[in-house]
Automatic annotation (TrEMBL):
One of its GO terms (biological process) is L-valine transmembrane transport. Coiled coil: none annotated. Belongs to the AzlC family. It is a multi-pass membrane protein. InterPro entries: Brnchd-chn_aa_trnsp_permease. This is 4-azaleucine resistance probable transporter AzlC. One of its GO terms (cellular component) is plasma membrane. The keyword Signal does not apply. It is found in: Cell membrane. It comes from the Bacteria. Keywords: Cell membrane, Membrane, Transmembrane, Transmembrane helix, Transport. The chain crosses the membrane at residues 20-40, 46-65, 72-90, 135-157, 163-181, 188-207.
């Protein structure tokens, strides 16, 4: 694998990222529709997607704004939803940390759930890849997703409420996360974290401003970390 050219790794990444197009397009359409219903015009919607480039956080912020949630809560909630991206970055640092600064800056902007999911699996399975091959693969994995996310957002913003509810585009978000989380449930700690987060989210559904999700996320991470520590003690 070490003899493979960077170009070949770009196309490997492109191939691995292509299936997520079927999620990115309806997800982008849904956000465009949602944004226009929330009162944003096409230019504002496109600027939101291009600068933030974080679908889940964008949906969270818009939903809370529609509910007249205080600005501080909106910002905290959006940051909390995107906290996973910081963890993605930390996870990728051993593989991409030696790349030039400008490449790391581009990669930071392009880190999304799909590019991380593809890249971390490839990097773990092929530890002999060079830094340049890893970066090229990473960029390739997000190349089919990024332009179609932007295009989907534009079409959704233009079409607005003309898209029939029967299309059920609101399923794009949960399907995306289920598709990515499922293969990552490889240890008992992962399963414990997911189950605890689900239970706590259901128990705190009545908490104002969707703060129950923040509580559930924190509970899941704590439970997962404790489960991992217990497993390590058992092994030793």
């Amino acid at each position: 694998m070490a003899s493979a050219t960077s170009k070949s790794y770009f196309w490997k990444g492109f191939r691995d990222g292509t299936p997520f197009v079927f999620i990115a397009v309806p997800f982008g359409l849904l956000f465009g529709v949602f944004a226009t219903e929330a009162g944003l015009d096409v230019v504002q919607t496109m600027a939101f997607s291009a600068t933030v480039f974080a679908g889940a956080a964008q949906f969270t912020a818009l939903q809370l704004l529609q509910d007249n949630t205080p600005t501080v809560i909106v910002l905290i909630s959006a940051l909390a939803v995107n906290l996973r991206v910081a963890m993605y970055s930390a996870s990728l640092t051993p593989y991409l940390g030696a790349a030039p600064l400008w490449q790391r800056a581009c990669a930071a902007y392009l880190i999304v759930d799909q590019s991380y999911a593809c890249s971390i699996v490839r990097f773990e399975n092929e530890p002999d890849m060079t830094v340049q091959q890893r970066m090229t693969y990473f960029v390739g994995s997000v190349t089919p997703i990024t332009p179609l996310w932007i295009l989907g957002t534009y079409l959704g913003a233009v079409l607005g409420t003309q898209i029939p509810e029967s299309w059920a585009l609101d399923f794009a978000l949960p399907i995306t996360f289920l598709a990515m989380i499922g293969p990552m449930m490889r240890t008992l700690a992962h399963v414990v974290a997911a189950l605890v987060a689900i239970v706590v989210a259901l128990l705190t559904v009545a908490v104002p401003f969707n703060l129950g999700l923040l509580i559930a996320g924190a509970a899941g991470m704590i439970a997962g970390a404790q489960a991992e520590l217990m497993l390590e003690r058992t092994k030793s």
